[in-house]
Design brief:
The chain is elongated and about 105 Å long. It has 322 residues and is mainly beta. The chain has no helices and 21 strands. It has a five-stranded antiparallel beta sheet with strand order 17-18-14-13-21, with no helix packed on it. 26% of the residues are buried.
């Protein structure tokens, strides 16, 4: 649609691969005003959805919009002079299908969540179908179920203290560079804070002959708690041998005995080696946290270490009783 003496220009697509769900820009170039006016005084109006209705004219020679679907889309634009004369142009865009947003698997990363302890929720198995690096993705979390997401960051996990027992729902988004995102939800149960919060104690008793004799290490540990030791947590992984260079080796549970109504457990662990124990600086470590012994309320024993004696067989104790 050309009016005599109206300004004109070339309407074209400025976006390399127009895609549904992503911003697309069309713009006029090669502007001419045959009446001799300055092209900087021209105004422009666009109909970006093909409904025949043009947006109000502005000084912007381009328009950016987000197509809602794939397929052919005709965009119309007008170059308007100071007298109101205008030229109308059209361009048909082939809009490609939307690329799925980035995604991941949202899950609880803390075993046995409790109301008064830090809980971590995070994404694994991240995928960006656009081909971008997953290291460039950002993440936003709603940890209290109020529908409000915290500002997006580069961290794929969030850690918080629930503060109350019961079912907890966390929502999270994986966000791509263009702003597209997928949203996931995970629900888990939070245990109440137990009335017993006193941790059990450990006493380490071990007897070891001189290093290099090839017999290894035997460690006996006494666990005590006034409410009772959870015997099911006594086993492999409770105790480790700390090597002089800082490495660790697991010690095998040989036997355990429950005494005094379950408030005391006597456990013996063994580390055998045919190569002997060269050098000095060995320690026996009672583990805290994962793999450690707990009481019947779930409180974990604190870490205890005892140095391996050098020379003749001897007995050393570390830790105390509650």
């Amino acid at each position: 649609n050309v009016q005599q003496g109206a300004p004109s220009g070339t309407l074209g697509v400025q976006t390399a691969t127009p895609r549904a769900g992503s911003p697309v820009t069309v713009a006029f170039t090669n502007l001419v005003d045959p009446l001799g006016g300055s092209v900087s005084a021209l105004t422009f109006a666009f109909d970006v959805d093909g409904d025949g209705v043009f947006a109000a004219a502005t000084s912007g020679s381009s328009a950016t919009f987000v197509p809602g679907a794939a397929g052919a889309l005709t965009v119309r634009g007008r170059v308007i002079g100071g007298s109101g004369l205008f030229t109308e142009s059209a361009v048909t865009i082939q809009v490609a299908a939307a690329i799925p947003p980035p995604s991941g698997t949202l899950g609880l990363q803390t075993a046995s969540p409790r109301a008064d302890r830090a809980v971590t929720v995070g994404f694994t198995n991240l995928v960006d179908p656009s081909g971008g690096s997953v290291s460039a993705l950002t993440f936003a979390f709603d940890i209290d179920g109020d529908g409000v997401f915290a500002a997006a960051t580069s961290s794929s996990s969030v850690t918080f203290v629930p503060g109350g027992a019961g079912a907890r729902t966390v929502r999270a988004r994986v966000i791509g560079g263009s702003g597209v995102f997928s949203e996931s939800v995970v629900t888990f149960d939070v245990a109440a804070v137990p009335s017993d919060q006193v941790a059990p104690t450990a006493s380490v008793v071990y007897v070891a002959p001189r290093p290099n004799n090839g017999t290894g290490v035997v460690a006996t540990v006494v666990y005590r708690d006034d409410k009772g030791i959870d015997a099911s947590t006594v086993g492999l992984g409770n105790v480790r041998l700390v090597l002089p260079g800082g490495g660790v080796a697991g010690m095998e549970l040989v036997e355990s005995r429950s005494l005094e109504g379950g408030t005391v457990v006597l456990a013996t662990y063994r580390f055998d080696t045919s190569a002997g124990l060269p050098g000095t600086g060995y320690k026996v470590r009672v583990n805290a946290g994962a793999g450690g012994v707990t009481d019947t309320s779930g409180n974990a024993v604190a870490q205890v270490e005892a140095s391996l004696p050098v020379g003749q067989a001897e007995t050393v104790r570390a830790g105390g009783a509650d």
